[in-house]
Amino acid sequence: MILRRAFSSALCLGEWSTAISSFKRNSSVLATKHGSGSVIARPLSGFCHYRSNSKEEEKRNKGLTVQAVRCYARPIRKKQDFPSQLADLPPSLLKKEYAGIQCANQTDDLVKKLLTLELASHKEKLKIKTEQMIDMVRRNPTDNGSTEVQVATLTVNIRNLQEHLHKHPKDKSNKRRMLMAIDRRKKLLKYLRRTRYDLFENVCKQLGITYTFPLEYYRKATRRWAAKKALCIKVFNEVRKQRLAERLKQKEAEAVKQESAAKEESPV
After folding, report:
1. pTM
2. Quick one: which of 231, 158, 219 has its CA closest to 188?
């Protein structure tokens, strides 16, 4: 387009030298770099109106528009480092399978790396962390299923999922598992607080859990809600009556069978 306009204007005016000089001037303007913070200058007037007069050139230079290039790239926001619960495990610690072997520390360096946590997987480290947390709250060495042990196991699992979701926030399935584990731990802590308050305080202190009281549930009693609740209670009572009647029939049938069996066994 630039060449066509230049030579068409030159043919009309008969000024070849003017056309070539104006083409060079326009090409130098269009060849500006489009980097960050660079400036693009574009002439307002058409290409065929350039002349060799210096006054005209000064006027055109004043009419150049200066536009700053827009930066469409978004700034990269660095995520804050999430503290890992496995950071306090020393790499020289033996794995769970080799903890009772005495000659494990007397082997060479390569075998030590294989037996310790230096080359261990995340799963193996998580097992050792779970054992450490359970040892803090268990009642006796053989305690593996009490409420405190369940809370410790769930705490390790929750913190592991929190660390995973900090790196992968769109993992919905693991987010659901984390929320289910949190609800389960809340129920266990609520039960422990109601039954054994001293153990509840010890568990929260040893595991670093901040217990928050659940909010009270308020709901406005409307006519629709009252009617729905009354219907649900009525249906529940009817189902209960039917089940009781079925149980009575089963008991009567069993009693009849036992009587008939007793008569057949008894001698005439």
Report:
1. 0.51
2. 158
